[in-house]
Description:
This protein is of the alpha/beta class. The chain folds into 3 domains: 3-42 and 98-150 and 277-359, 3-Layer(bba) Sandwich (FAD/NAD(P)-binding domain), CATH 3.50.50; 160-273, FAD/NAD(P)-binding domain (3-Layer(bba) Sandwich), CATH 3.50.50; 372-478, FAD/NAD-linked reductase, C-terminal dimerisation domain (Enolase-like, domain 1), CATH 3.30.390.30. Helix content is 30%, strand content 24%. The chain contains 15 helices and 21 strands. The strands form 5 sheets. Strands 1, 2, 3, 4, 5, 6 and 16 form a 7-stranded mixed beta sheet that branches. β5 (124-128) and β6 form a beta hairpin. α1 packs parallel to α9 (324-342), α3 runs antiparallel to α4 (82-92) and α3 crosses α7. The mean pLDDT is 96. InterPro entries: Class-I_Pyr_Nuc-Dis_Oxidored, FAD/NAD-bd_sf, FAD/NAD-binding_dom, FAD/NAD-linked_Rdtase_dimer_sf, Pyr_nuc-diS_OxRdtase, Pyr_nucl-diS_OxRdtase_dimer.
Amino acid sequence: MNDTSRTYDVVVIGAGPVGENVADRTRAAGLSTVIVESELLGGECSYWACEPSKALLRPVLARADARRVPGLRKAVEGPLDVPAVLAHRDDIVFHWHDEDQVAWLDSIDVALVRGHGRLDGPRQVVVTTPDGDTVRLSARHAVAVCTGTGAALPDIPGLAEARPWTSREITSAKAVPGRLVVVGGGVVAVEMATAWRALGSEVTMLVRGSGLLPGREPFAGELVAEGLREAGVDLRLGTAVASVARDGGPDGEVRVTLGDGDQLVADEILFAVGRAPRTEDIGLETVGLTPGDWLKVDPTFRVSAVEDGWLYAVGDVNHIVLMTHQGKYQARIAGAVIGARANGEPVDESRWGRHVATADSEAVPQVVFTDPEVATVGLTAQEAEREGRRVRVVDNDFRSVAGAVQYAEGFRGQARMVVDLDRGTVVGATFVGPGVAELLYSATVAVVSEVPVERLWHAVPAFPTVSEVWLRLLETYRG
Length: 479
């Protein structure tokens, strides 16, 4: 076994999108930076989540849109070309190789140490390499934990032995299971039910709650549920799983016993019921923290319970917003903060300042790639009222929008704008319908910029486009 020691200004643990962006920003600030990764550079999002899942969903949604266009329906009749879809997914994830990511790190002069990194006291990280060697890394200024999350599995009898699928297995599967049970009603569950039903699986969804997509406007989950059922998904709400067993060896059937005693049999079962922080084996105990915990941070992403402010936690591990784009946003800010402090520059912690992630609480955008799509940003009506705001909720059915009629025959969907009456600004927006993801950035800009509703009246949408829904919402608001 060989031991080496190296010193850098910044050590980043985890080379997913978040860690890469922290390293990019600290390097841009002139700080020597090393990044530690035990798997593939690019992390969960690039290989087992966002990228492969959208590669699976894109042909599904494109075909759904085409089927709504008169004159085009017959051209897209028949099943999807499953081998072509899976091959495209494999291309998107570079066949689970990370040479391009390594080349990018080299291009920005960030060092890489492959292996499992663990904290070993203040500003110290020990890496065990795949060859069994040990590399000790010392940080002059900061260590950033960017290890993300993994799928959380509930404590259900027989589950571990049944080898359930998580988001990793479902996005990297090499073949279509004939019968697939999906447990959960959140984003991963509804997206993967959409994709694999279209690819040929008989899908049964088991949802403990009373609806899909909790935390969003209720109509979003209702319209997605309607779309799933129309696609042939057996959606069962208010249903709990009591136990799981796999019969007949590794390739045997999965037997699912429900809370009411009924049983289902499937080829595979996906559990998509939440995420857990990847902090259980990164040496938190050496700096006075509890392994496996979420890491609480101050507004500049320093871990609150660690003295001297050298430890940062960025992205999913801080449990603020568990989304890739928001983690990258945090990373850009955290990297700039680390650079400013290391270089003796002032830190701007004002609202919407360059060193505070204000959007984490006020303007988080998200798209759910189902049929219909769901696009949201900012507060729901319930969240705004819970905060004590005086709000007005404005709804519009897309059938009154000429651009939506042009987009697809029978375009079905709904839009909602939440207006803060005291400030006269939009604080939240939700769009549900085909292709509404492309409406989201305009809504995000409106919320972040705090544009007065009266000024939005002068932002004229082109005719005939789906974005005319903004005009319909504003017309309703003005009365």
